[in-house]
Amino acid sequence: MAKNDSFDNFLKQNSAIDLSVKTATSDKVYSILSKAIFQGDLKPGQRLVESKLAKLMKVSRTPVREAIIELEQKGLVVSSPPKGVRVAPLPTKEALNEFYDISSVLRGLAVRKAIDNNNITPKDIRQLNEILSESERFLTEGSLRKIADLNIKFHSTIEQCSKSKELIIILDNLYKKSRERFSEIISKADRQKKSIEEHKMIVEAIIKKDSVLAEKLMREHIVNGKEALIQEIELRENCSTK
Prior knowledge:
Blueprint: H1 5-13, H2 26-39, E1 47-48, H3 50-57, H4 61-73, E2 77-79, E3 85-87, H5 93-116, H6 122-141, H7 144-161, H8 165-178, H9 183-186, H10 189-207, H11 211-241
Antiparallel strand pairs: 1-3, 2-3
């Protein structure tokens, strides 16, 4: 694995996690590696070498090997013959279209079920509003990664309120497979600002218990995110060919 200052810095920032040989597990290593991939500290196409990762994280190779197997099963890394793996490439525009379209329907269903079944409590609404406030604060600070984390928390809060275990599992798997977190790497501040405004409208519909409107707004919100992401990908592709 080539030297990666970004990943080194990522490990230093997460040094509070106990990764001693005694306590390390494949779950902990998986959590660290997947987070580094999602945040862009491990780049698409970057080769992952068990021995070097183990040395960097100061663990034995066994939990690293087990974590890499799980990463490959989740589609976050791909086999790189003759041996080893690389971080999976960004999704194609065709894949993003499919995944976001499915996501818009399922997330719209989640918010509708949450409202129609009266599962959203005043505490949940307070949490959603707190997420909005924090998002606006981080927007002024230019902390787009933190906003991306809050975006996940926003949607997760609503999805948990649907009380539909199967729907939650499907959305979680869809999220991991579609690699939506890569949107934070190439997203722009203006899209983040619009996203927060769209979140506000969704919360207002939830407060009014208007499930039809909330579902409509949620579906539009996901589609808007997809279009912004694809537009940015096309822009980068055009720049790279010049």
